[in-house]
Structures
1.
Amino acid sequence: MNAKRLDQDHGRLRGRAVYVVDGSRTPFLKVRGKPGPFHASDLAVAAGRALLTRLAVDAGHIDQVVLGCVSSGPDEANVARVAALRLGCGERVPAWTVQRNCASGMQALESAALDIASGRSDLVLAGGTEAMSHHPVLLNDVMVAWLGAWNQARSLGARGRALMQLRAGHFKPIIALFRGLTDPVVGLSMGQTAEELAERFAIDRTTMDAYAVRSHQRLANALEQGWMDEIEPLYDAAGNVYEHDDGLRPDSSVEALAKLRPVFDRPVGRVTAGNSAQVTDGAAMLLLASADAVRQHDLPVLGRIVDSQWAGLDPAQMGLGPVHAMAPLMQRHHLDSPDIGTWEINEAFAAQVLACRAAWTSDTYCREQLDQPQAFAPIDESRLNVDGGGISIGHPVGASGARITLHALKVMQREQRDIGMASLCIGGGQGGALLLERSQEFAS
Amino acid sequence: MNQHITIHKDDAGIAWLTFDNADGGTNVLTEEVLEAFDQALVQVAQMHPKGLVIISGKPSGFIAGADVKAFARIPGVASAEQHIRRVHEIFHRLESMAFPTVAAIHGFCLGGGLELALACDYRVCGDDSATRLGFPEVKLGIFPGYGGSVRSTRLLGDLHALQLMLGGRTVGGRAARRLGLVDMAVPLRQLRSAALQLLQRNARPRRAAWYKRLPALPPLRPLVTHVLAAQVGKHVNTEHYPAPLELLQHWRTTAGDDAAMYASEVRNVARLINATPAQNLIRVFLLQDRLKSEGDKRAFAPRHVHVVGGGVMGGDIAAWCALRGMRVTLQDRAPEYLSRAVERAHSLFRHKLKDRYAVQAAVDRLMPDHRGSGVRVADVVIEAIFEDIDAKRTLYATIEPQMKPDAVLATNTSSIPLDVLGAQLARPGRLVGLHFFNPVAKMPLLEIVHDENTEPDMLVKAAAFARHIDKLPLKVKSSPGFLVNRVLMPYLLEAVELLDEGIPAPLVDKAALAFGMPMGPIELADTVGLDICLSVAEKMAAALHNPVPERLRESVAAGDLGRKSGRGFYVWRDGKAVKDAAEGTPAMPLADISDRLVLRLINESVACLREGVVADEDLLDAGVIFGTGFAPFRGGPMHYVHSRGVGEVQRRLDELENRFGQHFHADDGWGAIA
């Protein structure tokens, strides 16, 4: 029944076994032009306290809290520490925030896993949180310089002269969210890097839109089946409750999506708002444990994190990051695609996921870019992002890495798959991947 | 040195006098402490320090006030006068020290404590929310008598000082600074440094500006008195609570002449403290202490409360527990049934806590939990779902196996007996009643319901829990209506009966207010909701031989539910009952109406005592005062019976029975009332 057993010591996460106990996440809430009702720490607390209560784990027993967040607010620069204290972990539990752009949540899991494997920690609350609707709007440099001069101007005359120098351009704000989604080295927006891949692998608009529609259909189906039980509702101060990912469009169709105009490369481009990940607020929190901690606190177990890999590539091709991160994991553990029962590859863009699948099965790409003798077998479409992804669920950048890892493990348990892969592309030209195994020792 | 006060002189030549009562967590000015303070002042004077700092060694605060317990035992006016004169002497000694003095205040600084601080040259206090200064004396039926009326007018000016003393309210540190009550309000970490700075500065002690003393000019005093008396009259019935008017009278006759004012304090406060209203109010204060002592916090340290039922009661109970520091999970069938409770909790936290970090911490402690995950980790599980035996039993069947073995299982039922609800439990004796009153945030009483099966340990834990969430526990036997609803119901039904006899609703309510009730019974019924009154009345009807008035049924059937539907016995507009002025001569004297109302409540109280619903008369009085607001200055229903005369009350009952029927038939329990 069990085709392959993975050995953690074949990989780079050597040491003690790292168990994922369970996880919870908030609904992912679409950014609708104004700051949403929750800050990043609010989201992390909502998911975290539900998780800890459900597991009956006393927050005080946690060794440390690690959270991924790309841009935490000015009031919570180390958002992990804020969340840890608000969760009641107590002042003695250390916490740190990690940043690896779109993979920050995965980085948090890997950091936690490393500390458990090495014996430094036994019980770690890890995950990611992002309130993209709260990403700051900044003053531009000209305005900052002017304000400096204004503060120095003491006399009425000097102030008058300073006022005279104000121009409309001074008031042009910097929207950090947009800047963050633009590569500072090659100058392309993330959408434009997806356009690059669409051209390179000749992915047409209809295929991309069809992929997007399927993402929505899969999420709708998963909700209907009651499979998204890792979602914990959010409640705001005004008495509103948010139960589901609110960017879901179950009635989405290829025809409807065809009407959308390209947003990044006008007029020729193919990447639209409809076939890209949604900008959202959300958090996902997981509890990671050593075997000792699992026994000591009598915890259930979803699975293990067996190995991890980071990879770098041309920033303009960042969407292929998953391919570069997954390939070494496959090599180290002597795996081919059919061995992987569940795939989660974050849907930043439909074009980008489709390009990954294309590169994965391209002999040329595998030989030239991945030092593989030949291409991998195709990734079975029915095992990839089976309950939807960033396009339908949303992609709160700091949280997605944690969400896909958790969900891969949930799917593995549901479908009795032994081995799983969670991977994302990372703005700036990186890829990250975790190799997962359904738990054998602590079968629940 | 002695066991209540320590003194030492530091290297810089400053003397530090620390209040640290040997018997308790709070500094109180008992006779013993006052004498110790006097001795300490003599010793300090002999040290010839450069200055004196008076400070408290208790985390709870500076000095909570005079010894109220001793007030209840004061034997006569003469000895009260002697006591006050002696305190005047001690505080004069403090005031006339040859070196500068400062009070460094944190936490509570009330009544006599504030009067002591006012006898210092300077005052500094914390700027945090726990720092409270004020004169609560009028709430006990007296006014400040340790020189407070003299020194506060001198310091703040007459208007501000009088308002502070008349209202009985407390002010925070920053407000005290604005008022001029203290010289500085600083973060607690700087309290000592600020006190030293004040001594070093050695400025002339503050006095009110000359124009603030203008109201004390003899020609103006009658007018000022008149205006302030009118203000007071809007908030309290001065017939029942005469202290504010007594204070104004005292000020009017002696303001501006310190010696006369001190002498008048001695005379008047000594007289007031021996008068009935003060003695009854002090009794209420002591009854509150009695209830507090019914729960021992050390016996149980609950951290997590799980509440099932996100309706108004369940939601408010959950919010209250979170406000008081518990971790709370609140369960209902689906998230949508919890959102209203979360919203109400947010507004409670904002209203009570104000500080945004404290609000956030409270919000974080309260977790909406539609899955019911909290049951497994809870120390107390409170069921607050609708009143249905089967629904509750089904719920317990799923909850009980998940609970920690030593956790308390509680129900907020107001009408179903414990043995019925607990019959199918594996451990029926773990079920107790925690009967909260609506609105939870305002009502201090918590009925702890038990029967002969209740595990003693659970009862102890339930009472301790009540103290942890700052409620007053009252142990009551499981019987229809427990104590509070049981005695309230005949009172309300009698009011409806009066309506049926053609007495206008405003007149019925007026009679109850005249007796000293906080709200008339008709308005109360409308406020509670007629549907709720009907349901409680129906549940109690059989057991207590209280027929349910048709009129109540008809109103509910017509959809007139009271305040919430805009119409009940009254028409409600903007949250207020529209009361037409009663025309012509009243059909029945007010005293007859109030006797009909109150004597039914009292007769039922006697029945409760006979049945042992509560253990004794004091507990009954405490429960009825804190559960219904029963006229506090009357000291409780049983105390009222004794002051009016047991025989006289029984005679009146017989008379009412003859005139109005057998529901006034004196309960068999009267024989046991001494």
Note: The interface with chain A takes residues 327, 329, 335-336, 338-340, 342-343, 346, 360-361, 363-365, 367-371, 373-374, 376-377 of chain B (CB under 8 Å).
2.
Amino acid sequence: MNVTVPPDKLTAKDFASDQEVRWCPGCGDYAILKSMYKSLADMGATPENTVFVSGIGCSSRFPYYMATYGFHTIHGRAPAVATGLKLARPELDVWVVTGDGDALSIGANHLFHALRRNVDLNILLFNNEVYGLTKGQFSPTSRVGQKSPSTPMGSIDSPADPCTFALGCNARFIARGIDIQAKELGVLFARARDHKGASFVEIIQNCIVYNDAVFADFTDKDVAAEMQLHVKHGQPMLYGKAGNKGLRLNTQALKIETVIVGENGVTEKGILVHDEKNRVLAGMIAALRPPSFPEILGVIYCDPAATSYEQAVAAQEAQARAKGLGDLDKLMRAGNTWSVT
Amino acid sequence: MNLQADVSPGGATPGTAVSKAGQDAIVVRFAGDSGDGVQLLGNQFSQETALAGNSLATFPDFPAEIRAPTGTTYGVSAFQINFGSRVIKTAGDQPDVLVALNPAALMVNYKMLRKGGLVILDSGAFKDRDIKRAGFNVDPRTDGTLKEFRVLEIDISAQSLEIAKPFGVSQKEALRTKNIWTLGLVSWMYDRDMASTMEYIARKFGADDPIGKANLAALKAGHAYGETHELSGDVAPVSMPAVKFEPGTYRLVSGAEALAWGLAAGANLAGLEMVLSSYPITPSSPILHILARLKQFGITTFQAEDEIAACCAAIGASFGGKLGVTASSGPGIALKTEAIGLAISTELPLVIVNTQRAGPSTGLPTKTEQSDLFIAVFGRNADAPIPVIASHSPGDCFDVAIEAVRLATKYMTPVMILSDGYIANAAEPWLIPSMKSYAPFKVQFRTETEGFHPYVRDPKTLARAWAVPGTPGLMHRIGGIEKDYNSGNISYEPANHQKMTDTRFAKINNIADDIPEQGVEVGNTKGKLAVVGWGSTFGPISRAVHNMRDQGLDVSHIHIRHIWPLPRNLGQLLKSFDKVLVAEMNQGQMLTLLKSQYLVDAKGLLKVSGQPLKIEEVTNAIRAQLGS
């Protein structure tokens, strides 16, 4: 079939700026950037109406490589800057790019409030479980025992989990993807953009210099199929090379367990079916992590609210302005005044 | 005895002769428990006084606690008003009349009353327990504590209860009318028309509400009490003649109101919508409250999760092409400093309102100070200049806010406004300006793609182009990393950083060519002594210098509005005086600034008590400087 491409249809290249990308060779960020170029083109986005806002860290250099509008702000504050931008200009597509340190350490407060307010932002958290730009200290998502310049005997901090944090913040869209899975990421980007309200996407990202292969137990090619579960709304939660591994709810213990279809009397009927509108289920599956469970990927939770924050703000303003725009001269002369002649 | 009688010079108006028949200003201080409604009483009396055509200045002086335990000294709330038939510039050094609604209010305030002044007491509140709780060992009415004053005891509590009860309100509600009863009495004392208060009560409670009816009855009863109890033996009503104000329409305005309206006016003149993004903090919050009700003026208000987010959201709004504004007070400003640096680096307009309060740290949240001059001018990491403008009175906040918006948008820079707790809460009669009298300064967003990069500058102002997201062909990235002067891309080049730093510095310095030269408020452009002030010390300095000049001393008053950059001629002006005295409510911040900028051998009159500067303190310092 011959598809006629309209002349103004943008391609991935149209979203790339002329700046040389300066991440370390082999960094997972390159793959994410490339996926974003393509996704924006596929989605029919326009560079002039798209804005990338970031904080500080490796991931936060992202805006400089986009041919859109961009704002590289200060450490942890990107959600706050983006909220102000969205209040001022609700019609723009606003993306926030952040990392595990930026979003969950110095900026956790702002992330929490952007999510609970449900500002229509697409928030991408690149999680590499380490501080890269400051040369390798442990981060709030680093695992206990991680050795780093600031934890020579191993980290003793209990790590935060981005997706369950987001759920606790009352986020209405939560997804997880992997840096190198371009196709899947593209779907997540499109879903995040379509979602009205705050969208939260955790992207598992490999830091080749300071934390290489920390996710290898589920990202390596040879284990990927056995250790990744790509959830889809309405589909049973099956995974594995043969597609016969699944998740089942143990109702007596109220916990999720892994089973094999066809063994011990397990049938496909007994496998949990993903319902992305089910918040309780989202909480249970978001918390499952390797090695005991497969890494849960895809749209974990999506239940849009009736309105997003900036829509509610605009509605109040429209109500206030329904009787006409204010007149400063009248305002200042209202109430008790007196005249001197 | 007559209120007009027995007025000693050195009271409300030091150095001004006050004849028995013609006292031209009176200072009244209302004080009571923080739940007694003293601020409402003071505000309504101010309103009545303003409508009578008197000049006035007010000083609400209240504790940080919302409802401290009843009857304690730290729970005392006070409101001072100075009103007269001449132009009033301060809330008065010393009250002539103190209305004390309980013993604690008396304890905290009686020592500031002038000798021979009048104390009006609610005797119903002087139970043994209350007296002890206020810290008096013996009833102050009986042991000579008040012997230097005239004392008028009225059981205001009982009067209020009796009048309010028939309306079917609770005992508690009935007792709460005592502020309004007192207002009735004081309105009688000063021959006030109570119509505005009656309207206020009707508006607040509704015409049929029993509490509203009880308050209305209490107001009338307080007034009638004055008439019928032949108080005139002690306090004859005084009718203060109206001041000859400049023709026009007037209203009472507080600093917070004038500032909020000035921001709205500034945005309007710039042709921009505004996003005010703030976090609650005393004494800045009223600006957020006022603007939250002005959505129909193209204003969006956002109560952020913290001070940092408040500043960042304002910056985000400015990036989006609206006027970003954030308002706070000392500790909040400290938190915003990194974000202000971002706005400096990205050269976005931003108005930061700093309603200063006593510090450091939490300090005295409801008390006033001028100790944020350094943080305003210098308080950021690295070389990070911004313009700083200070308002000198409640009404002046309006023009200062407009000027801040003008500079922020014209020069693409954050601008800090310095107000303070005193100005924010105080009220004064204000000649309401007409918006037609202000020249618009419409912002032109960049739309031309030819030759564009984000740091392309206006050759004259050095302001960078403001291109807002959504504009085709002008996509660009900005951020806190140093940018190349010629392309706006990231640059680590040593020479470029020098050039960009110099450019940021020159841009702000050049604003000195766009602001008025420094004038002299009172006196001459040269002479023996210049008293230099800035901000809310305007009133006491101005009055003190007037008084001293009347006594033949060679002293002038210079008041600085543009704190940074300073006016071009200021150094020359200061050097034309033999001596310079800087009067300010901090440990010498303007003093240090002027010394460092101009190498002038200035001296300081420095005060940090949380209370406004007094006229007498300035006159004493002037005398000391001039050796007279």
Note: The two ends of chain B are 36 Å apart (CA to CA).
